[in-house]
Specification:
This protein is α/β, with parallel strands linked by helices and 190 residues long. Helix content is 34%, strand content 20%. A six-stranded mixed β-sheet has the order 1-8-7-4-5-6.
Amino acid sequence: MTGMRLPSIAAAILVAALFSGCSKPSQPAAASVKSDNGRKAAPDFTLKDETGATVKLSDYRGKVVLLNFWATWCGPCKVEIPWFMDFEKSYKDRDFAVVGVSMDDDGWKSVTPYVKNRKINYRVVIGNDETAQLFGGVDSLPTTFVIDRAGRIAAHHFGLVSKSDYENEILSLLNAPKTDTRAAATEPAR
């Protein structure tokens, strides 16, 4: 009888690990977009994509951006990636983009085959500790920021969040009246 319980306990632990953050436990976050005056400018970064092209977050000004810090070994990240692919496909014509920042230690060695095998349809770059620190330290994966057209952080999540929460935030920002995107807050998020 004891032999039967051990696999059940192991399975329960595995399921719990899959649906929690990969690095440290995270609290479930309710979907909510910060008010305009509660948003701070997203820090800019310059990273390279797989082709070697330079990618700057500021190049996406004027678009709603879902910025996702992830890794190929992260279970919850694997759950979210197909959702983000759906969002990219559904909303790219509405000035929306997904940018994935891989935090894999071995960089493109792991990321390239992962992206190709899953046919990820959005831009992926390799992040580093400096990039993570710009965003207040990315201690848990996945960590995701939803950025408004003016380049300000409208929402952020640590750990797995439901697809509908993300979609509600994205649609809220896409459906908001367009404003001057040059008038972004000057104080970077920390």
